[in-house]
Structure formats: structure tokens, C-alpha cells
User: Fold this.
Amino acid sequence: MSRNGKVRLPLLGAGILLAASLAPAQSKVAVISLQRAVLESAEIQKASAELEAKYKPRQTRIEQLQKEIQDLQQKLQAGQGKLTPQAEADLMAGGQRKQRELQRLTEDLQAEVDRERNDILTRSSQRMSEVVGKIAGAKGLDVVIDISNTVYFKPALDITKEALAEYDKTYPAK
Assistant:
């Protein structure tokens, strides 16, 4: 109110208009399961099969060594008291050599598989982010949130399948 008791309506109206203009604009949001989209892509499926085939001979060798070690342990247990000290020492030494070889092969295989898998996943994740960016631009989305960080969303907001289809189209498995 002014000094004379009258309300200044023009000032009040201008304040309401100013507050309304400062209110945030409606944002367009989507969600995606980025992990699922990447892991279900044809490229990743093919790369996974190739990794398995590439490392299968080494995995087979590891399994063979495990069986050989188990056989040596059984011979030692079955021969307790029946084997000469030298024969027992030879079996134990052979088992220790095989155990070291097994450990080395297992560690080397794991390190190589991890490195190669991480390279593939990093490249595919970057590509998927590009695809999601294109989809967001085409749909006029303001933000795309990963499902893993979302408490609730309407299923209609999920663009995972769309992103996966676009990824497979853009980056077909060769």
C-alpha cells in the first residue's frame, strides 16, 4: 500500500509477471540403461564371441593343468606310505611346477582379457554416448539420465531400445 492507503496494482502485476518469466522452462528428459544398451549391441556380442574363441586354447591349457595337478594330488594321497621318499619328492616338485605354471597362465590370461575387454567397452561406450547425443538432438531432449542413477521414471521415457537399434545401424558388427 502507498502512503495514501491505495494498493499499487501495476507494481504488483509487474512483480507477478517477472516471477512467471523467471520460472524454469519445461525440460524434455529421457532415460537410458547405458550399460544394457552397450552390452546388448551386436558389436559387443560379436567381440565377446571373438574374445572367447581367441582365448579358448589358453583356457583349455589352464583346465588341463588343473586336472594334471589334481591327478598328482590323488597319486600322492593314494601312494602315502607306498611311495619312496624320492618318488614322493618328484611328485611334489612336479605339482609345484605345474601350480606355478597354472598361476602364471591364469594371471596372464586374466590381464590380457581384462585389457582387451576394457578397450572394447570404452570404445563402445563412447560411440553409444555419441548415438544418444544424436537421438537427444533429434528429439529435442534437454537431458538423458542413466537408469542406474534414477529412482523412478515412466517407461515411456526409456530410449534404451531406440539407442541400441541406432547403435547397431550406425556401428554394425563386422
Observations:
- Residues 69 and 95 are 6 Å apart (CA to CA).
- The first strand starts at residue 29 and ends at 32.
- Residues 85-139 form the longest helix (55 residues).
- The two ends are 76 Å apart (CA to CA).
